[in-house]
Amino acid sequence: MNAIRPIRRLRPVVLYGLDVLAAGLVMLVCLAGAADTPVGKPPEPGWVSALTVLVISLPIAVRRRWPAAVAIIVTVASSLAFSLEFIPSFAAPGPVCALVLTFYTFGSAVRSARAFVIVAICSFLISAGLGGPMLFAQQSGPPADAPSAVLTLFFGVLVIAPSAVLGFAVGERRAQRALRDEQLRREVAIEERLRLARELHDIIAHTMTLIVVKASIGNHVAETNPAEARDALQVIETTGRAAMYEVRKVLDMLREETPMAPTPGLSDLPKLVETASGGDAAVTLTLESPDDTAPADIPESVQLAVYRIVQEAVTNVVKHAAPAKCQVTVLVGSEDVRVEVTDDGKRPVITGRSGHGLIGMRERVALHGGTFSAGPRDEGGFAVMASLPVGGATAGGDR
């Protein structure tokens, strides 16, 4: 499979140049054969031999552009040259080279039912052209240079069929590789769309939830406590600007000329918790490293996954559990990062279905080969727990 890659990488101009060179070489071989005259037969006019050689060899230069037409032309010309002895049977290497090159290209380009019909008809024509002088010779025995009857019968098949089959195999392999490449491109595109969808969901869901909560607080206390209403509006403004910035960063990922902006990580968790705290939700953060592993040593992709998981979990607390206290615990280790987000919300937990947030968190953890669980706590409230290996995807899955 790898043997054909260097040829396919050549530019079309180079390939056509090689075809022209092959046509010239075949022309020389055919001319050498046409120059010999069979014993007992007067020589044909020179222009006839030259025309026959040109019709056999020149089409090879355009065999990639019109493979079927070139195959038929070369076959008919070679068959007539053999039957009329313009090129005697002992000088068959010239037409044979032309047929091999032509039907290799034909087999790789035309892979349909009509290809088998054309190969069968062309094989018969070549065998009939080679055997014609034997059948219609005006003498008691076959010509001295005539091949055996068995070789004559199967000559066309032996020359054309292997070349066509080899071309067919190469063409099929190229088509399968192109199909695999296209499938890979589609899978990469789908994976990228899912990643962007998760990013946008986490950003928009978190910020819009905070904006709605703060807006409702500000509307509720606008008349009785203008200062608190003003604080709510400031949080809405800050949150909205931050959301616009993060959305712009995600959209910039689609532009190749745009440099990649730094993604949120473990160092951004305090600001996230501070923004989420307020109103009826009190969120506290515990960020520890039992084995003194620095957060900067954690891969960027793992840090982003942890940030988005905490962001989505805290958003769910603000949206579904408030009034409640929420505890975010992140343990950074040399082997994995453990995340636990719990709340003591008194609202009933709706079970039996998972929203897009939980699905997104589960997908993020699965991409890193970690474990994930989420559900109601026995003492009340809800808990989200995740463990992400630092070394990348390992054996593991969702729970």
Residue ranges: pLDDT <50 for 5 or more in a row? Answer: 1-8, 394-399
Task: Tell me which oligomeric state these chains represent.
Answer: single chain
Anisotropy-based shape: rod-shaped
Integer average pLDDT: 77
- The main sheet orders its strands as 1-2-3-5-4
Kindly state the number of beta strands. Answer: 5
Strand content: 5-15%
Structural class: alpha+beta
Query: What about the largest sheet?
Result: 5 strands, mixed
> What's the alpha carbon Rg, rounded to whole Å?
39 Å
Number of domains: 2
How helical, in percent, are the residues?
55-70%
Figure out the total of helices. 11
Distance between the termini: 42 Å
Order of helices and strands: HHHHHHHHHEHEEHEE
Keywords: ATP-binding, Kinase, Membrane, Nucleotide-binding, Phosphoprotein, Transferase, Transmembrane, Transmembrane helix, Two-component regulatory system
Protein name: histidine kinase
GO cellular component, one term: membrane
GO molecular function, one term: protein dimerization activity
Short description:
The protein is of the alpha+beta class and 399 residues long.
Any descriptors?
alpha+beta; single chain; Heat Shock Protein 90; 2 domains; transmembrane; rod-shaped; two-component regulatory system; five-stranded mixed β-sheet; 399 residues; transferase; DUF7134; Sensor_HK_TwoCompSys; disordered N terminus
